[in-house]
Here is the input.
Amino acid sequence: MKQEDLKETSAPSPMVDLTGKASLVIHSKDLFGDEGRLVLIKHNDDWYRLMITKQRKLILTK
Here is the structure.
């Protein structure tokens, strides 16, 4: 398959490479460890939960 064919048939990706602009890059394994599925994040006076789902996706909730 040609590169042009991939562009036409693939959905546009909403992700943009921001690693060069980020002040810090953290791998999820470094946050969660090998067995963890929940990380608590304190932002100002609020607490957030960053969770890994069974489908291995991340969900951030307040």
